[in-house]
Specification:
66% helix, 2 strands, 498 residues, mainly alpha, single chain
Length: 498
């Protein structure tokens, strides 16, 4: 959020507005490729991100139906098997296998994989470069025309009924559906106060999607400016306050949507007398702190007085610092589940030790070293390992304050718009890293419930979701030493520390 809330040179003629037009597709293309990285790492470390994202929706559908679809399907199949004779059973089995084989082929072609996402993003980047060079340099057209030509080419390419691009159409349909769900009537929860039916909670997939939109807030601002540039073309956009109104409102939509979700959850917590409902209000306040830097930065471009610009610059820096610090603390404690209650993981006679040595501790009486800082920083369950998790935390901290590059803008960047493009790209990278620990933590929270474990594993093997992921002699994973019966309880979740 913090690193992509400043506005580039949006007024006048020249390269400023042209660069602003090219920023949006470039950042979106980078976000697609980085999501491919997320998909690859989720698969590598054994996290079924699709089930993590969809679990709340599955529960919601089952509650709406008043029954468990898996149980109903199982009973129907059992009744069918009792009424069929041997011959029909053999035929049915053959047909089922053939249908299963065809479904597997279709599922494979429609599956969203890391390689597909990376290839798709590289193809989009090549198309963007080719379309702009062709339209501007060869056809002697404008930047606006080149951007519209790019978007038109992408739309036509996706809309063509080709089997190779079917997964893209399905993915775009999913994105569009989730975007519509962000304004679903479920959000009007005030009626639940006088109704016996509890309002429906916002599912995790919509929270995750809205957070991703927040990182693309400046993309929405640039789209608003594209509308203004097209409206005033060929004249430059006038340096007036109303010129930034529409882009600022459009850029604020992700934060307003996310804050609204927090208020929905606060309302539900209030109706349920949840003692932790205040957390949703604090989260809503966090998103409100994201709106002010964007608005002040846009308003600063309309000011001509140098004294007023200097004052607004100081205000903007203060707002960015507040938002970055608030958001970083929320990332670590709430979104990633770290540092929530360090004392419970720091018993005096115990210490952090490598998992590889845990088995030998019960048979030795050696003096153990003092507790380390890893207890206070890391969760006891880390799917990506201690080293990777700490690295993500450090990089996220640095990127939260990437706006500090503004103090070195003239030394590092040819223009203000190159600086803005850099911060937008860094925010996309930060969001990709944030996704890893966010989905991991949600997976762990879901697995704490037996019903959630059954939904996530989809089998009777309860250990399948907690198997070790990558074994390395160099990976030193920190977990508290356990003795007696407590060790038996931790065995079930031993894989989550990997």
């Amino acid at each position: 959020m913090s690193s992509g809330q400043e506005v580039g040179e949006i007024f006048g003629a020249g390269t400023g507005p042209a660069t602003a037009l090219l920023r949006s597709p470039t950042v979106i293309i980078a976000a697609v490729g980085l999501w491919g990285m997320n998909v690859y790492l989720f698969k590598l470390f054994g996290i079924d991100y699709e089930k993590v994202l969809m679990l709340d929706l599955l529960k919601e559908r089952r509650e709406a139906a008043g029954e468990n679809p898996r149980v109903v399907t199982s009973n129907a199949r059992q009744n069918n098997n009792h009424t069929e004779d041997d011959s029909s059973s053999e035929t049915s089995t053959h047909n089922s296998r053939r249908r299963s084989h065809n479904n597997n082929l279709n599922s494979s072609s429609q599956e969203v994989t890391a390689s597909k996402l990376v290839i798709f993003s590289l193809s989009l980047l090549a198309l963007l470069h080719f379309s702009t060079k062709l339209y501007i340099n060869i056809l002697d057209g404008s930047t606006i025309g080149a951007i519209f030509a790019f978007y038109t080419a992408v739309f036509i390419g996706i809309a063509l009924p080709l089997e190779s691009t079917k997964w893209i159409r399905l993915a775009c349909g999913t994105v569009g559906h989730r975007a519509l769900e962000l304004i679903h009537p479920r959000c009007f929860c005030l009626s639940g106060a006088t109704s016996s039916v509890m309002p429906r909670a916002v599912p995790f997939i919509d929270v995750f999607f809205a957070d991703a939109m927040c990182s693309l807030s400046k993309v929405f601002f640039d789209w608003g400016m594209l509308w203004h540039l097209a409206w005033h073309y060929p004249e430059p956009v006038p340096t007036e306050l109303h010129s930034i109104l529409i882009p600022s409102v459009v850029a604020s939509l992700p934060y307003l949507i996310r804050a609204r979700q927090c208020l929905v959850m606060y309302t539900i917590g209030f109706l349920k007398n949840d003692p932790k409902k205040y957390q949703h209000m604090l989260n809503a306040i966090k998103y409100s702190t994201s709106l002010w830097p964007l608005c002040v930065s846009a308003y600063e471009k309309t000011v001509n007085s140098e004294a007023e610009k200097a004052t607004l610059e100081k205000i903007l820096i203060a707002l960015l610092a507040i938002n970055s610090t608030y958001s970083l603390a929320w990332d670590i404690v709430m979104d990633w589940g770290m540092m929530q209650n360090p004392q419970q993981f720091m018993p005096v006679p115990e210490t952090c030790v490598p998992n590889s040595s845990a088995a030998n501790l019960s048979s030795t009486s050696k003096a153990l070293p003092a507790p380390t800082c890893a207890h206070a920083v890391l969760r006891p369950r880390l799917r990506f390992g201690a080293v990777t998790s700490i690295a993500i935390l450090v990089v996220d901290t640095i990127l939260r304050y990437s706006w500090l590059l503004r103090f070195y803008e003239h030394n590092l960047f040819p223009s203000n718009d190159e600086y803005i493009l850099c911060t937008q790209f860094l925010e996309a990278v930060r969001r990709a890293l944030w996704n890893l620990l966010r989905v991991e933590w949600e997976n762990i929270k879901q697995a704490q419930s037996k019903e959630a474990e059954d939904d996530l594993t989809g089998s009777t093997d309860e250990e399948s979701e907690y198997n070790p992921f990558i074994k390395s002699p160099n990976s030193m994973e920190m977990t508290p030493r356990v003795n007696g019966s407590s060790g038996q309880k931790k065995d079930r979740h031993h894989g989550l520390s990997k």
